[in-house]
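Shipment paperwork, digital attachment
Item: protein structure file
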Amino acid sequence: MGNINGSQNIGGIAGTFHNTTITNSYSRGNISGNYDIGGIVGIISYGSIVNSYSTGNINGNKRVGGIAGGSYGSFIRNNVAINPSIIGIYYVNSVVGYNSDSTVLDNFVLSTMLTTNTPGGNTGMFKSDMELK
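Attachment content:
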């Protein structure tokens, strides 16, 4: 897949998703922009992302995630984020950069995150967690 560059609401499959489901999908390109940057979607509200994966580099400033940049009241489950790098400044996370009332469960992560200032922690299991089980 090709690379995707933009300003805001940038994702490998869609920029903005509302009240919709993404299932069994993938994105393999590098994605970059300013804010709401995600491997699958830039921003999702009241929808779901299930059984999907992202493998490209993700680069943004604010709300940057391996699967979604921002998620509001959504369901994110059984996804894989194998991103060589996820780079950002604020709200950077291996699965969902900014999470507001979303359910994030059973996601696998193998990524290197580079951030200078991010509230909160990571959601997902890293390679070391998987190897211990």
